[in-house]
């Protein structure tokens, strides 16, 4: 997406339910608004993924956690327990699959396609684990680079 230098990125969404809230219609944190053209594709994707994950989690009940579904494979889902990026073009998801097996997805930004899914929280967890809040906190604490 081509950006005008010095202007925040454009985003837009229309929902059937006018009270629906999504990343595209919410105010952007300052660090996400800041000069997307100066960020690597990995960092730019990482910052926006954080917003999508946090927004998705905000809409979950206490019995569910966020996970990613995989397309085109029988790998199932990955319970998102961490997300990172490696400049200039890699985004990594850390977590576990439905059986609790440690899982990591390393994705090139040109191949990035993420399906967020609500899955039942782990039985041993008193409360669902929420990563979105931690990710947004990290995004806000990170130095602008």
Outline:
Helix content is 22%, strand content 25%. It has 145 residues and is an alpha+beta fold.
The span between the termini is: 20 Å
Percent range of helical residues:
10-25%
Largest sheet: 5 strands, antiparallel
**Helix and strand composition category:** alpha+beta
- Basic shape: globular
- Tally of extended strands? 5
Strand order of the largest sheet: 4-3-2-1-5
Taking all residues together, what is the mean pLDDT?
Answer: 82
Q: Element order, helices and strands?
A: HHEEEEEH
* Helix count, DSSP H or I runs of 4 or more residues: 3
Radius of gyration: 16 Å
Q: Identify low-pLDDT runs.
A: none
Beta-sheet strand percentage? 15-25%
Would you kindly provide a written description of the structure presented here, covering whatever features stand out?
- The protein is 22% helix and 25% strand.
- The chain is built from three helices and five strands, in the order ααβββββα.
- Helix 2 crosses helix 3.
- It is globular and about 45 Å long.
- The two termini are 20 Å apart.
- The model has no long low-confidence stretch (mean pLDDT 82).
Give the helix/strand layout.
Layout: H1 30-33, H2 41-58, E1 64-69, E2 77-86, E3 90-96, E4 102-108, E5 115-120, H3 132-141
Antiparallel strand pairs: 1-2, 1-5, 2-3, 3-4
Helix pairs in contact: 2-3
Descriptive key words:
5-stranded antiparallel β-sheet; 5 strands; globular
């Amino acid at each position: 997406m081509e950006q005008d230098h010095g202007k925040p990125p454009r985003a837009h969404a229309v929902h059937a339910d006018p009270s629906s809230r999504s990343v595209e219609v919410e105010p952007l944190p300052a660090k996400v608004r800041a000069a997307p053209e100066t960020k690597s594709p990995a960092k730019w994707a990482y910052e926006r993924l954080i917003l999508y994950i946090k927004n998705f989690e905000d809409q979950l009940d206490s019995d569910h956690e966020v996970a990613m579904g995989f397309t085109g494979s029988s790998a199932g889902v990955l319970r998102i327990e961490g997300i990172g990026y490696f400049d200039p073009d890699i985004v990594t998801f850390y977590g576990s699959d439905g059986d609790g097996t440690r899982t990591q997805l390393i994705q090139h930004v040109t191949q990035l396609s993420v399906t967020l899914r609500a899955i039942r929280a782990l039985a041993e967890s008193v409360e669902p684990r929420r990563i979105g809040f931690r990710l947004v906190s990290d995004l806000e604490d990170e130095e602008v680079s």
